Amino acid sequence: MARMMYREAVLSTIAEEMERDPNVVVLGEDVVGGNGTAGGPEAIGGIWSTSAGLYGKFGGDRVIDTPISESAIVGAAAGLALSGKRPVAELMFADFIGVSLDQIWNQIAKFRYMFGGKTKCPAVIRMAWGAGYNAAAQHSQAAHQILTGMPGLKVVMPSTPADVKGLLRTAIRDDDPVIFLEHKALYGVKGEVPDDKDFMIPFGHARLSRAGNDVTIVSTGLLLGFCEAVADKLAAEGIGCDVIDLRTTSPIDEEAILDSVEVTGRLVVVDEAPPRCSLANDICAMVAEKAFASLKAPPLGVNPPHTPVPFARELETAYLPSIPKIEAAVRKVLSYR
Amino acid sequence: MQLSRDQLLKAYRQMKIIREFEERLHIDIQTGEIAGFTHLYCGQEAVAVGVCEHLSTDDKIVSTHRGHGHCLAKGCDVDGMMAEIWGSRDGLCKGKGGSMHIADVDKGMLGANGIVGAGAPIAVGAGIAAKIDAKGHVAIAFSGDGACNQGTTFEAMNMAVVTKAACIFVFENNHYSEHTGFEYAVGTNKDIASRAEAFGMKVWRGDGTDFFSVFETMREVLEYVRVPGNGPAAVEFDTERFFGHFEGDPQRYRGPGELDRIRETRDCIKKFRASVTGAGLLTDADIDAVDADVMDAIENAVAKAKAAPRPTPEDVLEDVYISY
Ligand SMILES: Cc1ncc(C[n+]2csc(CCOP(=O)(O)OP(=O)(O)O)c2C)c(N)n1
Ligand SMILES: [Mg+2]
């Protein structure tokens, strides 16, 4: 085991996979940095430091600084993937999927099916998502609610450094396109990470981060930690919560959720995207459909409001699901008779 | 064209207010009191002011993530902008937008923008509206050297040409897009204007560190675009940014002594003073008086921003047409 930050887990996994497989190629804006400047290359190594040192090690053919051209970044990843490479493309912020949406939605997501199964598209599109930085409406958004709804994409949302390691390795070795969503407020979080250079976590397998028999809480990303805090607080009162970290939203581990709800009969889904057509709605509906007989209370989603992400500290704090809001939701489903 | 004493004083004041607004933010950001991502315009003042001094409120501009200078030059309220950046309820956008999203549509300022390359297509729409209205108004898209690589910018240029939109693409080439050099990222002859030319536009080039170069260039560009039927134009200004890409940038891409050198030799405010006092158009005392006035205005704006009411949780649900 090694102790490292979430961002270091991203970097070291990419480096290990580049070492192992010469077809792995990194591309994105400022992934090298300093190209064409007096300071020279390697000025930054990605704005999240998730590609620092890769250029020195693997060279400019495999670590590609791109112009500001998200559509061409994702499109090039598609072309690389169709040509035998394993691109790991970075969009600095998940919000920028807007610029590249055709290449994600109509191209990489569709090749395998639309071409009658004749091709693979092993592209990883990494991006930083989420609020908490007061970065306002165009640099703080969740994107999983949009991308999870697109057939053909696998969508990964790690919440811990160890999960970054295991899931990113699986993503890079996967033959389908994978959207890898890194929560920007977690980059500095540290955790134990297995050293094994083949450590992989299969997609569609959730992680039980707290165990209890009274309520099921499902979440991912930054808010998972909030849910754990609520579970720990309630545990002191003798209330037991299963906290399920989804890890991947597509494929989704329905079984883990249903197994838990069959015991608890009560469900809260905590989601950083606005409520309509959200992950929370999706899971609540799935549980209502498949575990109706087990339910002792209506399933409840905790989401931000149906608004863009506001800028000011007070507004962003009010916008995001918080520990008190999650606790209130859990108590609400518990109080239902 | 010789500017009057009042015009010179106004132009200088506009540049100076941007400069001091940014210098003050640079200091206040270190304290941690200002939240979010802030990109300072310091060094590029001559471009915003040299362009906007030609415009009326009926002319539109669309700005970028580095938008404070464009906003101030287009007449946005200094107090309202400072309050917005401080995230207060009195801010121009009630604390909902922040530094990257300042807008004042009544002033013809259609918004700073957090998405690089998003502005140019919006300016085309405003330019088509100006063409339809046929009153000689124009729409201006400010874009950086980085934004000129975005497909949206290419599409906007072509569409402006084919629709004959009354639209001007102003490219501010400060040589960097975040940490990457312009010479690496822009493939065409290390030059942006020639790209615009290839799209079928008339183009101009100017020194973005010299107010008079920008102002004179823009006089010609506007004379051309304001003529109904002429369609769009583009202009590239070579300029410098004095701070990092964002506040907190280690700036490892700079050469040794680069920041000192550009502050010394490429400072539009120093150059303006030297030029007007040298020509006997204004005196040092005239300029010092503006400086003192500007410092008061900034001090005042900061005091007001700090004292302004903070937004409340209920404000999150204001300005939406429906809540869930
Ligand atoms: C679509 C999009 N891609 C990337 C970014 C991140 N980003 C913000 S500013 C910037 C560089 C912009 O360079 P330039 O257009 O030259 O403007 P400057 O910063 O020099 O004013 C980048 C890459 C963004 N905000 N939006
Ligand atoms: Mg630039």
Automatic annotation (TrEMBL), chain A:
One term of GO molecular function: oxidoreductase activity
Keywords from the named record: Oxidoreductase, Pyruvate
InterPro entries (alphabetical): THDP-binding, Transketo_C/PFOR_II, Transketolase-like_Pyr-bd, Transketolase_C
Keyword Magnesium: no
Keyword Cell cycle: no
Domain (Transketolase-like pyrimidine-binding): residue spans on this chain: 4-189
PANTHER family per record: ACETOIN:2,6-DICHLOROPHENOLINDOPHENOL OXIDOREDUCTASE SUBUNIT BETA, PYRUVATE DEHYDROGENASE E1 COMPONENT BETA SUBUNIT
Name assigned to this protein: Pyruvate dehydrogenase subunit beta
Organism: Novosphingobium sediminis
Lineage, uppermost ranks: Bacteria, Pseudomonadati, Pseudomonadota, Alphaproteobacteria, Sphingomonadales
Automatic annotation (TrEMBL), chain B:
GO biological process, one term: pyruvate decarboxylation to acetyl-CoA
Gene3D superfamilies per the UniProt record, alphabetical: 3.40.50.970
SUPFAM superfamilies to which the protein is assigned, alphabetical: Thiamin diphosphate-binding fold (THDP-binding)
One of the Pfam families matching this protein, by short name: E1_dh
GO molecular function: pyruvate dehydrogenase (acetyl-transferring) activity
Keyword tags: Oxidoreductase, Thiamine pyrophosphate
Catalyzed reactions: N(6)-[(R)-lipoyl]-L-lysyl-[protein] + pyruvate + H(+) = N(6)-[(R)-S(8)-acetyldihydrolipoyl]-L-lysyl-[protein] + CO2
Residue span, Dehydrogenase E1 component domain: 13-314
Family annotation (CDD domains): TPP_E1_PDC_ADC_BCADC
Cofactor annotation: thiamine diphosphate
Domain of life: Bacteria
Biological function: The pyruvate dehydrogenase complex catalyzes the overall conversion of pyruvate to acetyl-CoA and CO(2). It contains multiple copies of three enzymatic components: pyruvate dehydrogenase (E1), dihydrolipoamide acetyltransferase (E2) and lipoamide dehydrogenase (E3).
Name listed for the protein in its UniProt record: Dehydrogenase E1 component
Organism: Novosphingobium sediminis
